Amino acid sequence: MKYDCLIIGAGPAGIFTAVEMLRKGSKKKILMVEKGVSVEKRRCPKAKTKECVNCKPFCHITTGFSGAGAFSDGKLSLSYEVGGDLPTLIGAEKAQETINYTDKIYLEFGADPHVEGLGQEQKVKEIRRRAIKAGLKLVDCPIRHLGTEKAQKIYYDLQEYLLNSGVEIWFSTICKDIIIENGACIGAVFEDSKGGNERTVYASDVVVATGRKGAEWLEKECEKHNILHQPGTVDIGVRVEVRNEILEEVNEVLYESKLIGYPLPFKNKVRTFCQNPGGFVSQENYDNNLAVVNGHSYKDLKSNNTNLAILVSHNFTYPFNQPIEYAQKVGELTNMLANGKILVQRYGDILDGKRTWEKELSQSNVKPTIPDAVAGDITAAMPYRAMTNIINFIKAMDYVVPGFASSETLLYSPELKFYSNRVKMDENLTTSIKGLYCLGDSSGWTRGLMMASAMGVLMGRRLSEKE
Ligand SMILES: Cc1cc2nc3c(=O)[nH]c(=O)nc-3n(C[C@H](O)[C@H](O)[C@H](O)COP(=O)(O)OP(=O)(O)OC[C@H]3O[C@@H](n4cnc5c(N)ncnc54)[C@H](O)[C@@H]3O)c2cc1C
User: Fold this and answer.
1) Angle at the Cα of 234 (from 265 to 15), degrees rounded to 5?
2) Could you tell me if 72 and 173 lie in one domain?
3) Ligand 1 centre and the CA of 63: distance in Å?
4) CA-based angle 91:205:37, to the nearest 5?
5) What is the pTM of this model?
6) What pLDDT does 284 receive?
7) Is residue 240 situated within a structural domain?
8) Can you give the residue range of the structural domain that contains 171?
């Protein structure tokens, strides 16, 4: 089987590569291969079962057409300062231009024209003033909120657009290995997602866009085939949940507060991430059975709570430089304490040095939006350095958002973000292997919907130019 362009992974990065190639009038024969199913067939059984049943052979939240985007909150961060390190590769100006362009495609496919975080400059100034006092940096980032339901509709329309335009898509098919011969990538080997039916595909250009869940696999491929790469950063943290009343002002003015700090004594980078006003905390399962916490919000269905992640960046040098493994161990230990579920503890109990009991959760104003989270002791699994960073960051946040450091504030763990294994490439997205391109979250250069989509757009342009 021979194609001009083979795209492995149908997440936003892969999708926008194909979309931009079509928009540029490319006549190339494109094949997309996706481990999961088409977007309209994706179902998370948790809506019925109320608890994660750990779907096999893959989790529908992260796998299938539109990747981790389908069940995401669908918050498009419209600033180059948010969503990854692509700007350090291609420059801030080009990154912003590409984001603006990509945003227009989302609008064409039905995204809400309203943008959160614009037009309230005086109120933003007041929040920033408090942030400065607390030693935190407030990053301005307008947000286009698709909402989970709308995101699925937009990605469905994109899927149909690709199919109707002649892009071939193989679903339920997993890439086992890429083929490198004489220093060039010439194709890849696939099998059905349940195993068996091995197939080899040859292509002039091979784009790997396998997302966060495919990052570990890609790292192994880099090792195996000598694709230049370097260990990146891993984020370990907690998901915090408070009543909407606490974050009301920030939700209303900014929708999402992007705050960054370097709290004492370690001065590591700590930041807020993925804020979901009226949202729900959720569990996500990795293929290796690791259960991690996440959060999302719907456009219409609202809870009484707001959740956000507080993440501590971790880098390693010598003699240990395996950040993914490190974070996994933290996750496994936490999962063990919660019997494979998500662990939840009240902030006040952490300060008091005690675990949280189930009955204590019901005494608070804030009720967990993830019903099967297990009350317990996060500090029994969280490394001291990360825990201290989180506690001190929450104290600083309390200046910006009074009540944030309340004793009833809920902390869920493990919240892990694997951005590791950064594939080495230049500003034209050229890797060390001819014909091989690595995009999106699995490349280590992005960590958000918009940045991954924008990187796809750049890739699409590059591959169209080659005709
Ligand atoms: C619950 C949740 C909520 C989120 N909310 C937001 C948000 O509101 N805003 C935001 O900016 N970001 C959010 N994110 C992050 C965002 O979804 C990702 O950054 C983005 O989807 C990355 O795009 P990608 O194309 O690089 O990878 P992905 O979207 O992960 O897609 C990769 C695809 O590759 C497939 N794949 C993996 N390995 C293989 C293989 N070996 N063979 C074939 N196919 C393979 C996967 O099945 C997947 O479909 C959220 C993520 C989650 C999980």
Assistant:
1) 145
2) yes
3) 7
4) 95
5) 0.84
6) 85
7) yes
8) 2-111+146-229+422-465
Task: Report residue 176: phi and psi, to 5°.
Answer: -90, -40
Residue 439 covered by a domain? yes
Which residue's CA is the closest to the ligand 1 atom numbered 47?
63
**What total of structural domains would you count in the chain?**
2
Are residues 391 and 461 located together in one domain of the fold?
Answer: no
Are 193 and 258 within one domain? no
Distance 319 CA to ligand 1 centre (A): 31
Nearest to 167 by CA among 68, 64, 12, 26: 26
Helices vs. strands in the chain: H and E counts, helices first: 14, 21
Q: What is the pLDDT of residue 420?
A: 62
**Quick one: 203 and 313 in the same domain?**
no
pLDDT at position 348, please? 98
> Alpha-carbon distance 343 to 117, whole Å?
32
Determine contact, residues 239/308, Cβ cutoff 8 Å.
yes
Q: Ligand 1 atom 1: the closest Cα is on which residue?
A: 72
Question: Quick one: pLDDT at residue 54?
Answer: 77
Residues of the chain with pLDDT under 70: 287, 420, 466-467
Q: How far is the CA of 113 from the centre of ligand 1 (A)?
A: 23
Residues 37, 14 within the same domain:
yes
CATH number of the domain that 209 lies in? Answer: 3.50.50.60
Distance in Å, CA 224 to ligand 1 centroid = 24
State the Cα–Cα distance between residues 236 and 413, nearest whole angstrom: 9
Instruction: Please report whether residue 116 resides in a domain.
Output: no
The reply to whether 432 and 387 lie within a common domain is: no
- Distance separating alpha carbons of residues 362 and 354, to the nearest angstrom: 17
318 and 433: one domain? no
**What is the number of other CB atoms lying within 10 angstroms of the CB of residue 80?**
24
> Could you identify the atom of ligand 1 that is nearest to the CA of residue 58?
47
For residue 467, the model assigns a pLDDT of 63
Calculate how far, in angstroms, residue 22's C-alpha sits from the geometric centre of ligand 1.
Answer: 22
Any residues with Cβ below 6 Å from ligand 1, and which? 8-14, 33-36, 61-64, 67-69, 71-75, 77, 83, 174-175, 209-214, 217, 274, 282, 284, 294, 296, 440-442, 447-450, 452
Of 402, 418, 434, which residue is a domain's last?
418
Structure tokens of 26?
């490319």
Pocket residue to mutate for ligand 1, from 274, 293, 418, most atoms within 8 A of Cβ: 274
